Amino acid sequence: DVKVTQSSRYLVKRTGEKVFLECVQDMDHENMFWYRQDPGLGLRLIYFSYDVKMKEKGDIPEGYSVSREKKERFSLILESASTNQTSMYLCASSLSPSTKETQYFGPGTRLLVL
Amino acid sequence: GENVEQHPSTLSVQEGDSAVIKCTYSDSASNYFPWYKQELGKRPQLIIDIRSNVGEKKDQRIAVTLNKTAKHFSLHITETQPEDSAVYFCAATLNTGGFKTIFGAGTRLFVKA
Q1: SS3 string of B4-66?
Q2: Which sign does the torsion angle of CA B109, B75, B63, B51 carry?
Q3: Could you say which of A42, A48, A51 has the minimum Cβ distance to residue B103?
Q4: Residue B75 contacts residue B20 (beta carbons within 8 Å)
Q5: Are the Cβ atoms of A105 and B44 closer than 8 angstroms?
Q6: Which of B43, B100, B106 shows the shortest C-beta gap to A48?
Q7: How far apart are CA A46 and CA A83, in angstroms?
Q8: What is the per-residue pLDDT across B78-110, written as a single tens digit (0 to 9) for each?
Q9: Which among A31, A42, B67, B90 counts the fewest CB atoms within 10 Å?
């Protein structure tokens, strides 16, 4: 059974703080993704990674960066948090693209930036 | 880049009726179309998917159809039940080295008992 975990379920930060969101998967998946979910906007892709140390921008990468030093871990970094980054952040992973692309999601981190 | 539009944003049906959710995509290179269901307070989970070489796929009460020419695909739920109430997301996937998945905005389905 695939397990994707995120470091926090709820997080409150102040404007200008550096924020780290971590995601870990235990199924040796090659692909990992970060989305933010906002009402009426669905899931918007921030960044994704298809291999260690590889990353690609999604649709809304501005204000975010990512790190994939190990295969099982994908970190999302908010360099200087702003109030418009208040959102639900979902991490996902999927197996090698040559087989199946089903994404397995983590439980989400609800971030509030004050 | 790829853009996925999903309609309607909200859908209310009576228990036992059918529900249809429609999505269109813009990039003809997209070749994989999953549907995810997200119940209140829970993570999205895959319920059905279809690849571009197939026109229709069915799994019990849910089915998905794909029209590659028109670049649209639909989710059909028959004999709806209250536990079908959730937000449903369609998505289109491109192979750009990794698999980039673009989601629709979601449809909130209410099934009234």
Answers
A1: EEEECCEEEEECCCCEEEEEEECCCCCCEEEEEEECCCCCCEEEEEEECCCCEEEECCEEEEE
A2: negative
A3: A42
A4: yes
A5: yes
A6: B100
A7: 17
A8: 999 999 999 999 999 877 666 678 899 999 999
A9: B67
